[in-house]
Amino acid sequence: MSTGQTVKKAKIEKPSEKETRYDRGVRLWGSEGQKALEDGHICLVGATGAGCETLKNLILPGVGKVTIVDPSTVTDRDLGRNFFVTRSAVGSSRAETCRELLSELNPSNVSTNSISKTLSAVLTENSSFLNDVDCLILAEVFEGDDLSSISTKCRETNTHLVTLSSNGMLGFIRLQCGSANGHTIVEGFPDSEIHDLCVTNPFPQLQKYFESFNISGTTDLMEHSHIPWPVLAYQATKTWQASQPDPTALPTSYAQRRDIKEILKSMQLSSAAEENFTEAQDNLNKYLPHPIGDAIEKLFMCEEVNTSSDIYWIMVAALKEFYDKFGILPHSGVIPDMQSTTSNYTNLRDLFTDQHSRHVEFISEAAAKIAQARSCSTPISADFCKKFCKNARNLRVVKHSSIAEELSSFAGIADHVTSEPSDAWWYLLHRASLVFQQKHGSLPVNEQDCANLSEAVKSVLSSAKSSLTSLPDEYIKEWCRAGGSEIHTVASVIGGIASQEVIKLVTKQRVPVDNTAVFNGIIGNTTVWKF
Fold first, then answer.
1. Which contacts qualify for 331-334: CB closer than 8 Å, 24 or more apart?
2. Quick check: 85 and 78 in contact, CB under 8 A?
3. Among 207, 241, 280, 438, which residue's CB has the most CB atoms within a 10 Å radius?
């Protein structure tokens, strides 16, 4: 029977054009990451194919500002390697031509600018130019520019530096984070998340919850099969511990864990219908206490923990104080999905949410005291403290060596270049070609350059104090045969990888490459090294 009342439907606001455009990006790196990207200023030096592919992948998700620095003009050679030039533009400024076409990808949200000069000329006219740049992408070194000087300048201005290039079927990317003290990361987003459900070391409220279930006295199959698996794991472990000489022992061996699995099987009413018991057995290794990991231990040992007034390091110092007192990392407040009734699951989740809040409160108070002692005037927001504690297990600091240091002695090359053929040989040739360029004014591009390139290789190996003294002639010839050509498919791959690394650096999310990636299109392989 109708009551005569009408029910108003909730009005659903149509997302804006900007929200629709950036929806997938926000799902990946969240609203804070999107804002960091929109506030970012990226400068590309050298509008090469790989450089423009990198910018394309940054303009589409909405980087705020882009500047292209390139003194050269468009040539016929550019037509075959860069989609962002046209035949009608031959002879025109390459920086402006690429800027104009790239800007069409996202004209409403991205500010673009072009400068038809070398970077050294720009810095001579405006020494503070890099102060406003978040990340410098160096795709080509022009006459008058010096890679070591650029590397040093980027460190002085805390500007991230990403160098990239390709030669034939080979591509190279090298990262240098802005700060010499390292690139700090709060949201590491590991491939597999570890959830500490405190099965073997429950806090009082959780222990009371675990012990509130009478598993053996529950005869209803539906109710029995929806008891959360941490409850089953806790009670099975307690049963096992009662049979041990040490009632606090943990099942560390395979045989001991097998015994607990047998206890879990004996607790079941029906082996076919109780998925929660299967979950308990599958997670047996995961609910044992996890070490904090090498990355966090190294973080605690960093000098900045005891001295720095940067908010990140103050929070790490507070986290260390928490760990030293309780022997655990703060709980994230997040639990995984599991077979359970809604009420059982929400009650369990609420316990961990409350525990997370208590941990956040402790660390927040500790951080405030440390900040005051170190005369840090920058306030630490409650939201940042919550995010920091939520991601405590995934905190990272990546310390990239400077490119200037690498080029001064090539010391890292000796660690990776051995007598066994590998992609490190191609990286050696990549660095040797820059030595060749400094001496001869151009890159090696034909067979006549093989002898001089071979000498450059020997020079680099000698500087690196490598046990290897030279490379086989076929590698030298293959490098010269490529002639500095830029194949667009390879440039596209390099642009894809480089843009992801730039986003990691700008948003401070996920762990960037440390510090060199080599793409070998000849065999379809990508290798990462630290130089």
1. 331/196, 331/198, 331/355, 331/356, 331/359, 332/195, 332/196, 332/356, 332/389, 332/390, 332/391, 332/392, 332/393, 333/357, 333/390, 334/195, 334/390
2. yes
3. 280
Q: Which tokens go with 232?
A: 């089953």
Count of residues for the chain?
Answer: 531
Find out whether 69 and 55 touch, Cβ atoms under 8 Å.
Answer: no
Q: Which of 13-22, 87-96, 399-408 has the highest mean pLDDT?
A: 87-96
Angle at 181 between CA 373 and CA 174, to 5 degrees: 160
What are the residues facing 66 on neighbouring strands? 42, 112
- Which residues neighbour 321 within 8 Å (Cβ) at sequence distance 6 or greater? 363, 366, 370
If we measure between CA atoms, which residue out of 389, 475, 433, 412 comes closest to residue 140? 433
CA–CA gap between residue 260 and residue 285 (Å, rounded): 11
Angle among Cα 353, 337, 231 to the nearest 5 degrees reads 75
Give per-residue pLDDT as tens, 43-68. Answer: 999 999 999 999 999 999 999 999 99
Give the bridge partners for 438, in sequence order.
none
Query: Model's pTM, two decimal places?
Result: 0.86
Residue 450 · residue 498 · CB < 8 Å: no
Q: What is the DSSP string of 395-462?
A: -EEE-PPPHHHHHHH-TTHHHH--SS--HHHHHHHHHHHHHHHHHHSS---SGGGHHHHHHHHHHHHH
Give me the DSSP letters along 35-85.
HHHHT-EEEEES--HHHHHHHHHHHTTT-SEEEEE---B--HHHHTT-TT-
124 touches 79 (CB < 8 A):
no
For residue 499, the model assigns a pLDDT of 97
